[in-house]
Amino acid sequence: MTVPETSAELRKVAGSFSQELLAADPRAAARRVDAKTWSPKEVLGHLIDSAANNHQRFVRAQQADALMLPGYEQNHWVESQGYQDADWPHLVALWTHLNLHLADVISRIPPAKYAVQCVIGDSEPLTLEVLVIDYLQHLKHHIAQIRERL
Description:
Layout: H1 3-23, H2 26-29, H3 40-60, E1 66-69, H4 74-80, H5 88-107, E2 117-120, E3 126-127, H6 128-149
Parallel strand pairs: 1-2
Antiparallel strand pairs: 2-3
Helix pairs in contact: 1-5, 1-6, 3-4, 3-5, 3-6
């Protein structure tokens, strides 16, 4: 998949999955399978955090020849933001609009910037291109989790 294809696919996924989420029962969205597993609300919250963090990465990587940013502790982010107690339609709207915006950001990345080296936390360097494409794969992985749990 290319960066432009990723942008187009992200736009499509955000539009269609948001409708699926809005049709879901908010009580089911709040159900945890067990104490150690995130509810669909919390998984969606994690995807909101992922979008927010990747927004920074995608924009900042275009400013430099290399990028180093910290990672983030996912469980802390999900818990501290109270996604479990949040309004379901609000979470869906936030996730949808962040991803539609990310699709726009991705579509504007100049091809000359695809090779910018990015180091996130302790990870090995990845190019901006790989980071963008991996974002969509990560998103799809968690969409499948949400679908299983709703």
